[in-house]
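ok so for the tutorial part 2 we go from a plain amino acid sequence to predicted structure tokens. step 1 is just haveing the sequence, like this:
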Amino acid sequence: MSIQQNTATSAVSIKTSKIAQSLTAAALGLFIVGFVGFSHIEAVHNAAHDTRHANAFPCH
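step 2 — the prediction. this is what the tokens look like for a chain of 60 residues:
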């Protein structure tokens, strides 16, 4: 394998890794916002209440 092929393979691997990390972070963020924002469990609601209002996220 030449140096040029090695570099190209490394660049694709890095790009794929960044995309995977971004998608994972987005999915986790949506899950957390959805769960905490619309939870009917009082302890979960109260734990994040002030933060949600500070960020203009409606919770009730």
